[in-house]
Amino acid sequence: QVQLVESGGGLVQAGGSLRLSCAASGTIFSINNMGWFRQAPGKQRELVAAITSGDSTDYVGSVKGRFTISRDNAKNTVYLQMNSLRPEDTAVYYCNAELLKYYGGSSYRYWGQGTQVTVSS
Q1: Cα separation, 15 vs 9, whole angstroms
Q2: Is the CB of residue 54 less than 8 Å from the CB of residue 34?
Q3: pLDDT tens for residues 58-76?
Q4: Which is it for the CA torsion 56, 61, 63, 66, positive or negative?
Q5: E-assigned strands of 8-114?
Q6: Which pLDDT does position 104 carry in this prediction?
Q7: Distance of CA 104 to CAs 3, 44, 111, Å?
């Protein structure tokens, strides 16, 4: 059993900052790509930021220069530092991890339960 547990969401004023964390636990051999997605009401879920096992990162254009994704492999945790938040960043944020449960096994994607981020104007 694998679980991804997110924390750090909340209500913040425009221009403020939040830091999201997502810890993976359970039967894990290795974690490949990790990422953060978000879904606003009435919109499709979109990829916000991703990080590979080699620490290469990628961001959706609207958050470049404001958000930073990082990971701590020793803790099986991925972070999303969000600065200069805007009302349009309001959404439920989900973490995602592509991982192997066993050596030589297949990789599977797992999702966290989501954490609400609300940015007031």
Answers
A1: 15
A2: no
A3: 999 999 999 999 999 999 9
A4: positive
A5: 10-13, 18-26, 30-39, 46-51, 57-59, 67-72, 77-82, 91-100, 107-111
A6: 87
A7: 21, 34, 22
Query: Dihedral of the CA atoms 71, 117, 17, 50 (nearest 10)?
Result: 30
- Token output for 74: 């020793």
DSSP label at residue 74: G
pLDDT in tens, 61-118: 999 999 999 999 999 999 999 999 999 999 999 999 999 988 888 999 999 999 999 9
Residue with tokens 């919109």: 43
In the chain, the amino acid numbered 44 is Q
Task: Tell me how far apart the alpha carbons of residues 28 and 65 are, in angstroms, rounded to a whole number.
Answer: 32
* Both structure tokens of 60: 């959706």
Q: Which of 117, 92, 97 is nearest to 109 (CA)?
A: 97
116 CB burial (10 A radius; 0-12, 13-18, 19+):
exposed
